[in-house]
Amino acid sequence: MDRVILHCDCNSFFASVESAINPKLKDVPMAVGGSVEARHGIILAKNDLAKEYDIQTAETIYSAKRKCPELVIVPPHHDLYEKYSQMVNAIYYEYTDQVEKFGIDESWLDVTGSQKLFGSGEEIADTLRRRIQEEIGITISVGVSFNKVFAKLGSDYKKPDATTVISRENFRDIVYPLPVGDLLFVGKRTRETLSKLNIKTIGDLAESDGARLKRMLGKSGEMIYRYARGEDDSPVDPHSHDEVKSVGNGMTFKRDLRGEKDILCGIAHLSESIAVRMRRKGVKCSVVQVTIKDPDLISIQRQEKLSSPTNLAKDITDKAMEIIRHSWNMNKPIRMLTVTGNGIVPEDSVQQISFFDEEKNPKRENLEKTLDKIREKYGSDAVKSANVINNDLGI
After folding, report:
1. What confidence tens digit (pLDDT) does each residue in 83-138 have?
2. Distance in angstroms (rounded) separating the CA atoms of residues 382 and 34
3. Three-state secondary-structure class, residue 180
4. Nearest 5°: phi and psi at 3?
5. Could you say which architecture CATH assigns to the domain 247-388?
6. Which strands sit side by side in the sheet containing 299-310, from one edge to the other?
7. Is 227 helix (H, G, I), strand (E, B) or coil?
8. How many angstroms separate the CA atoms of 252 and 293, rounded?
């Protein structure tokens, strides 16, 4: 028997939540956007009235305002969005315990075993849409299918507030004409490669030479070929995001960073924040990755392996600065920095460290864990690194 999988996607989630708590926003073109003063001036989400002006996610607020001078900009409230996400998923859990979150506003549900209690997959989808609108005040679109990939295509197929069923009988009619870029995990580079092979639609991909795709794109080529043909058997995994894969933090600064002192200030702040989070999660990173964005929004990304896994801010700072010195002109301005710890391993995993590391790490580790306890008791601002005191970068 085929599985019955739902993919539920909250429509214009951030904007919908803002409108739920302030209904007046439903009647005007509005968008959730970052602070222009702090140079986070891009559109994060927009309502349907704003979409009529062709306002796009990630475009600058300046550009959006030129298209729609009366556009209302609302600052983001991420704690509120997390709260609403939990409320929505709590309703999902009333119908199945097989719920896999795919970001803050999307979830897959396996309702195969729920149908005797709650009706068909389509009926459950319609019930969820009705309840979430009535009880929470936002809308969702739902795809119903026999696998996760097609269920996601279904939730994107018709918006807002719609249910789309993609079955074994109709999937070729619905899925095959769609642009190949609509398929899960087909990004820009893959789409460009497929275009060179004259593969423009999901149907083109499904009918192409699978062996050739594997030769050109490796395992990902084989995967998307199977996805296009409806051969996805991946389970809905409630624990898929429990495992920490990376820990990162980024910041757009109030002014451009110039010179080593500025850059060190930004890196030290970001490294400290991710080190604290890793220690809370009981993990260490074995790779440090740095993303740099200049004032023209051109970015580079570099990463290097550490000599041994760490969750200490000083180790991460030292490696991140080493990466920047090797890959960036230190006098060139920087608008945004992101530091990410990759290659995550459990904190108590066995690791070989040099004699020198054995001498220095316990002292540093005790110091940073002591600072954690002070911050937990007196607040995150109770202790600060000397190089971020009295800065004018927005830290």
Report:
1. 999 999 999 999 999 999 988 899 999 999 999 999 999 999 999 999 999 999 99
2. 27
3. helix
4. -70, 160
5. 2-Layer Sandwich (3.30)
6. 247-257, 334-346, 283-293, 299-310
7. helix
8. 9
d(CA 377, CA 379): 6
Q: Which residues are catalytic?
A: 106
Dihedral of alpha carbons 342, 346, 351, 357, sign: positive
- Tell which CATH classification among 3.40.350.10, 3.50.50.60, 3.10.690.10, 1.10.150.20 matches the domain 176-228: 1.10.150.20
Q: How far is residue 4's CA from residue 118's CA, in Å, rounded to a whole number?
A: 13
pTM: 0.68
340 has which bridge partners? 248, 289
Two structure tokens written together for 54: 């062709």
Question: Residue 226's CB: how many other CB atoms inside 10 A?
Answer: 15
Q: Which CATH architecture has domain 1-166?
A: 2-Layer Sandwich (3.30)
Please, which residues bridge with residue 302 across strands?
Answer: 290
CB 250 within 8 A of CB 337: yes
Within 232-379, residue ranges assigned H as helices are 259-281, 313-327, 355-378
Closest CA to 338 of 260, 258, 269, 240: 269
Tell me the pLDDT tens digit for each residue of 154-194.
999 999 999 999 999 999 999 999 999 999 989 888 999 99
